[in-house]
Amino acid sequence: MDSADQFRFTHLPHPAPVSVAQRTELLANPGFGRVFTDHMAVVRYKEGQGWHNPTIEARAPIALDPAAAVLHYAQEIFEGMKAYRAADGGVVMFRPDANARRFRQSAERMAMAEVPEALFLDAVRELVRADRDWIPSGESASLYLRPFMIASEAFLGVKPSSEYLFIVIASPVGAYFSGGAVSVWVSEEYTRAAPGGTGAAKCGGNYAASLLAQREAKRQNCDQVLFLDAAEHRWIEEMGGMNVFFVMDDGTLVTPPLGGTILPGITRDTLLTLARDRGLTVREERYGIDQCYADAASGRLVEAFACGTAAVVTPIGRFRGHRGEIVIGAGNGADPVTGDLREALIGIQRGQRPDPHGWVQRID
Ligand code: PLP
Ligand code: COI
Predict the structure, then answer these.
(1) So where are the chain's domains?
(2) Mind listing the pLDDT tens digit for each residue in 152-197?
(3) Which H/E stretch holds residue 107?
(4) What is the mean pLDDT of residues 131-147?
(5) The predicted structure's pLDDT at residue 332
(6) Residue 202 known to be catalytic
(7) Does the domain formed by 182-349 have CATH 3.20.10.10?
(8) Cβ(128)–Cβ(93) under 8 Å?
(9) DSSP 8-state symbol, 235
């Protein structure tokens, strides 16, 4: 592939796409992550050849050698991002460049070939264009994009793969949580990531490691799991699939700092900026679980919320764990700071509010 052809996607349209009537029915109530569009973007990598054969093709099962490295040593990373239907019928994306950068950083940590950011963005945009009719227009609906990369070399020796598949799939989604405030189980037994580990990378292995704790949370009638640090089992880190914020009675926001063990969430970063724009004091600092329980009891801790691409901003109504249960605020999610930040974020993401930081990109 010479440089002029680089990243020029070949389009192989689906020979039998979903009918308009069926798509309309699917889009009416898509849930989260079970409905998929007609196409996918696929780009291959081979050592010595680099990235090649970018295509937009019919979404279909992929053929993998049973010895493919991803199946044995979990060399896999992914991203999560959304395209929205704007009020004028156009299509917008929110900070896709930040996902491209984080994907490259995840690849670096997992010793994988790095996808050039321009290629990542082209793949995502080409897929959104091909499947734009799949973008739902409801209030909390969007097209969730899932770029991912797997190690595809057939070799059982333990080493970084010399071949990769970079794929983007798309899924029309509604809200991740059914509504209201979520309940959170504090995991004392299992940790998610340790210093020097892969906590800051968006690799599938981190999620595999979280599932037992998430199952425990469900058994305890909680929606999500909260992980503490691996060294002292004391400092609040993040949830299984989202970052966490706390709001104090003086209006200060507290969120755990990025230190290599939590995912550097793009929503987290955005909310820090939006909060500062509003004149709120924001502290990225360690917050102990004992302090959290004490602050809830004294009334100092007035709100808490989860944030992420899937979760957007979701109020936390209660924490449960071996040390008992605490209710945050009224426990029903009617929290003013959380609500204000959520509205501000959604308004910008959907192109309904001014975008002073240049976060929103239009897809023509
Ligand atoms: N933390 C984890 C473990 C996640 O899976 C996610 C979701 O992507 C987040 C945090 C939030 O990241 P972002 O806001 O970039 O979606
Ligand atoms: C996302 O928010 O994009 C994630 O990857 C988290 C997962 C819970 C869907």
Answers:
(1) 4-173, 182-349
(2) 999 999 999 999 999 999 999 999 998 789 999 999 999 999 999 9
(3) helix 96-109
(4) 95
(5) 80
(6) yes
(7) yes
(8) yes
(9) B
